[in-house]
## 1
Amino acid sequence: MNQLAEPAYVIGFEELFWGGTLLATTMALHGLGMLVVLRVANTLNHRFAPKPSFVKGVFTLILACSLILVIHLLEVIPWAALFHAVDAVETAQHTPSVAFYVALSDYTTLGCEYVLVRHWRLLQPMIAVAGLMTFAWSTGVLLTLAQTFQDQQLALLKARRARRSSATGSSPPERVVKH
């Protein structure tokens, strides 16, 4: 047998404990963050309701996207803090910046040139799972906000058409459905 072979990797309790704790923390932060995003968007939609416009609707969506980005970046901080605290990143540079880079790269499932040391290696796929779940949740929130925006824009378009047709005294043409 080869004497230079690496010893077998065994998942440890400490790794599972910290991975589970950080996953729960990420989900709790995300839940709180999504509530903030929805509250801000609903406040803006209510404020803009008397005179809705395309620009105001797009502004609300862009602000929501920006807030979601900030929330995701904040969710990576606890992972990076652990990576830095325990020197988990296999590199000569043990800086908070490198730890954050590795955590964010793994959170987005992009990955990077760095890996975690053997004792903490399970955290890389666990942070990817956290990222997948939170990005799915964020997508659901954005779809909800986008649907509200689209419904509002369609209602504005319908109202504009109704005003135009009443001003000209004509009714909109009937649609013919072909079978």
## 2
Amino acid sequence: MEKDDDIMIKSTREWYYPYDTVDSLDVKAKWNVVVSLSRRRGKSGLRVFADMSGIFKAGLSKDLVA
């Protein structure tokens, strides 16, 4: 399923901290790519399971909501 982009499994570090810091613009850009790909494939939504504790610990909850 990963090969066909039906499912993506990423670690918290890989998705949010690839350069040891959170870049909210980079994270937003990643989500835009995922949403665009999903729409092009005719999907009507996404289901996300994520551990967001690192975002809150880093004090970035406002960036997350934005």
## 3
Amino acid sequence: MYRDTTRRASDPMLALLLGCGLIGWLPFAMAAGDDAQVVHMTLGDYQFKPNEITLKAGQPVVLELQNVDRITPHNLTLKDEKGGLDIDVDVSGGDTVRVELTPEVPGNYTFYCNKKLLFMKSHRDHGMEGHLTVTP
């Protein structure tokens, strides 16, 4: 299960934090809970950074997805029925999206960007994918 807790640059609270120079406090202001691990990931130039993530089963996590490409949309797709993972989140150019999840099933999973232009290779075909390891 996951919950999209998207914050866009047009959100009044985000604009206030940016204007006051308090953006460094943003992960604490928007955290899912005191025990949630926050993982910041950038999406851009046909890659995820980091592209290898290790999480502990049963621990709440907030994925903070920042699209550093100003125009090109990206997404994070992570679907594995046996692992209980069904995430497909779009991140417009220049935006940041927060996704809350709690992985429950240990294993190795692949995430990727499924965006593509007509008659072109997909972002995944350009190498935009990564790996999630969930440990017991």
